[in-house]
Design brief:
The structure holds two protein chains of two kinds. Chain A is mainly alpha-helical. Chain A contains twelve helices and no strands. Helices cover 74% and strands 0% of the residues of chain A. Chain B has one domain: 3-Layer(aba) Sandwich (Rossmann fold). The chains are: A mainly alpha, B alpha/beta.
Amino acid sequence: MATSGARAATAAALRSSSQRDRVIHITFVSMMIMALTAALLGLASLIIFMIAEGGGRLEWGLLTEAPSTIDPGRAGFRTAILGTLYVIGGVIVLIIPLGVGAAVYLEEYANPARWWNRLIELNIQNLAGVPSIVFGILGLAFIVRGPIGIGFVAAAGSLTLALLVLPTVILAAREAIRAVPSSISDGSLALGATQWQTIRRQVLPAAFPGILTGIILAIARAIGEAAPLLLVGAVTFVTFNPKFLSDGYSTLPVMIYQYSNRPQDEFRVLAAAGVVVMLILVLLMNSFAVWLRDRFEQTW
Amino acid sequence: MSEPVAADSTTEISQRIIAKEMPTGTEDSLTSISPTGRPRETVISVTDLSVYYGSFQAVDKVSFPVYEKQITALIGPSGCGKSTVLRCFNRMNDLIPSAVVEGVIEYHGVDLYGENVDPVEVRRRIGMVFQKPNPFPKSIYDNVAFGPTVLGYKGDMDELVEETLRKAALWDEVKDKLDESGMAISGGQQQRLCIARAIATSPDVVLMDEPCSSLDPISTLRIEELMLDLKEDYSIIIVTHNMQQAARVSDHTAFFNVKSEIDGQRTGYLVEYSQTRELFTSPKQKLTEDYITGRFG
């Protein structure tokens, strides 16, 4: 009677909103799905094309044979893979202490009121946007020649790429450190821990997943860089295994580029196979890093 | 104490607290005279303490003593500088760049803000429990062990952790899950964990900044009960919004209030300081009486 009328009125009021709202909702969701599809299609088509082109060429010889411009049937990527591993290894060794150290200094020790600290901050943010070829020129002028002058070696490639990705690492590490609640560091300091003890034992462990993300992003970018490395010596066509501080070197992206420049069809197929090898390598490294990050994930 | 862990009712815990407050025999723990008849030692003495944040004066010329192994409560309305004063005792205001501390705070006769005083050493002797429980994102064991570890404790850590958790009335509840995260326990247990963490380093004084304000009534009473046990070993200074709490647990009370300056600044100052029983039954200042009877605040 009266209550059933009230109930019907409430039910009507609580029912989902007008037709128009529903249409807007569906349209919006469809647009988002289309955007996602477009992005995934681009990525998928790239991978599928590469596998189609180079998949038939995949064999263990790609990893063990030295490159060759004469016989594409027996050419491989061994020296380039080693070169990539050396260069990226050097980058990792450099960016972890430098990047995390700079971030810790800027977040924990630097007084933001001082003008030079603000200048440093501005510079780092700008550097993150500088085109990579500029770092190649920098590397050529100061690392290969100039004051450091170590020549066209793999270490030069490491240094150049490290400079390139360092701003990314510093930015990500700073965000991660900032995300640690101050209640944690307050609690630690109130117990009589020094600032360094607090950073080492509380802040950095808590910020570890975020810092690792920054390092992953940096490495992912560095692996694929070809332009700056062309200027610091990776363009040499090496058929011998590279060393870190002497001889020439080459890296996977550069080698792919060189093979793709050759007129014969077989080299194009070889280049595509190289792309597939590189994708697998990147996938493996990223998976390892994501697994590592998940292991240390904290929930607040 | 090894009380059973089953859910105590509010009345049961209140009765235990009252029983502890009114000891039988000749001992009167509510005065500044210890049972042996000698006056209790002053562990901290505050003289003309003023605190500024930049040009804003938060606290104006506060003076009062803190007696050893007693509970001193700082009460007053919001914004009267109680927490600011509390944070001066363990030099936590040093972490705020614009904070300026004037006046003298003496700890066992030594000026805490003297030139040769290292704030880290001060904090090792004067511990703090914060308003919102802040356990570290580590295991319960590591939470308690953190303080002794960074201070270089070389003894049996397992024993120290167990002893500390027993003192904090938490051992029975967590002894089977010492490896679990300190954040996976309830709010009241987290705060008792933070208290355990603070006393693990055997401090002299424990500062508590509204330790129960984010807890339910039963957890609050359990922590009050804990405080009465702890005061046998530590001097406690507690900031609280809860007047009844101050009346229940403290031996001495300092009542703060806010005054408005001409330029609109609100500065805290000390209205009255005396033994708790006196302050709550026969306050000397009218303001005190108005506050404790609930006419403002």
